[in-house]
Amino acid sequence: MEATEIIIRPLLTEKSYAGIQGKVYTFEVNKKAGKVDIKNAVEKLFDVQVEKVNTVIVKGHKKFQNTKSGRTEGKTSDYKKAIVILKSSSKSIAFFDSLS
Asked: Which pTM does this prediction carry?
């Protein structure tokens, strides 16, 4: 897999904003990617040194919609989230620096 296929998008939440100062970044990643794949992709795309990668599968939420013909029920997609911790000697990721 290519590095651009592994990293789908950054996840920007209140909790992820708090980690930016400590060089902790959160990304949505391909479900089939392992920790080593994610580490190599982040190092290649952002030219940084990764210390640790944690992953979790986030389950989709149930959604309900009321319509004229009744109530419809659905579910959002599951996705894989990676929390990437950079080495203290590494530079930070410029995209996230512009947010804080």
From this structure: 0.87
